[in-house]
Fold:
Amino acid sequence: QVQLVESGGGLVQAGGSLRLSCQASGRTPSNYVMGWFRQAPGKEREFVAAISWNGGNTYYTDSVKGRFTISRDNAKNTVWLQMNSLKPEDTAVYYCNCGESWGQGTQVTVSS
Structure:
């Protein structure tokens, strides 16, 4: 099983940027798709972005296209989510995912 630890969340004003990191350990995730999900208060967890095992393919939910960028470095067992032009509606707990493994989440709060 893969253990995932997210970091990089925080409070930012609308229009600002944050970079989330997901450090993987245990069973190497280098052959797996990795992704980011988020859950806002009172809402279900939703897909945000994903990246193929070699980084060649990326996928985004429509609401973040052009603003968020997912990337990975398999040598470092790390996945990042660069978030630009943040909006208040991006406020949520962001979770890293690899197969059946989930991180503990990192809070992102965007003030208007």
User: Anything to note?
Assistant: Residues 12 and 76 are 27 Å apart (CA to CA).
